[in-house]
Known about the structure:
By secondary structure, the chain is α/β, with parallel strands linked by helices. It has 3 domains: 39 residues, no CATH class; 141 residues, Response regulator (Rossmann fold); 138 residues, Response regulator (Rossmann fold), CATH 3.40.50. The chain is 42% helix and 15% strand. The protein has 12 helices and 12 strands. The longest helix has 17 residues. It is elongated, with a radius of gyration of 23 Å. GO terms for molecular function: DNA binding.
Amino acid sequence: MDPVTIKDIARALNLSTSTVSRALRDSYEISPETKRLVMDYAERINYRPNPIALSLKGSSSRALGVVVPQIANNFFSQAINGIEAIAYNRGYHVIIFQTHESYERELANIQQAVSRRVDGLLISLSSETSDVSHLKALQAQGLPLVLFDRVADELNVAQVVADNFGGAYAATSHLLQTGRRRIAHLTIPPYMSITQERLAGYRAALEQYGVPYDENLVRYGTFGPDEADQLVEDLLSQTPRPDAFFTASDRLALGCLTALHRRGIAIPDDISLIGFTNLPAAELLNPPMSTVTQPAQEIGELAAERLIEQIERKHKASPPSTTKLPTGLNVRDSSRLVKTVV
Length: 342
């Protein structure tokens, strides 16, 4: 079968090709009714834009650069799925780069993306990135940018994040409601946006329930291998020891679970555990692990939409803003109420 073209859609709907083209790009110049008519018909006949043909029409590469810390991380793999779904439907292809949590690699990746003439960049900052002057320089040059998940307040760009504060507040509140009072928090480098937001939610819940914040119960990780074991060991050496652990990442949640099992600590009879994770296997662990879940795919989809909006409607795009998507608390056996807890 020959591929469907914009001319075919225009002929079927009795519209001009320029109107169809603008409607498919979600242009502000086209009425919502016409956009809906064109999009519905395009979906019905399985129309897909040809990125090569589109790029030949102008200087656009029809490519989006995506810079993430690690593709193997389940959150980022789901976010990339969302990005690619939107990009594909809008006639863009995606070039993915990994920083492996390195600031230097982030710089190199962004330089490589720019050299490939991407139309815009979607970025989640590395754990080593505290200076964002390289991104300010790109913004000054007019390159469309959107940050997602790990963001920077000092950048006046569109940002898409999860409700980290709300998720941490809900997790800590749940532990307090089950009688836990010495809740340890294992988290990631302190200057990262997600670290600060999750720590703030943890502290707010403690305050709400009249439990003093104890900085000795907070440990910051560095993304090192097997570091959760030593963090758990340090916390268990305290008197009295923690009666619950709330972790701020997939890696720390699994590391904490392993460390507690290794020491023969019963979960949740001795110590409760909640992770901040997108791990689909959380319910398959022993015991099934309570988690705060993040809408990773939706974050990717919305970030891609915001970026394409900038690329295609530079003069009418929405002003830079931060969009916060809700998290959810999945309560499982690792934090269930134990009647013997005082």
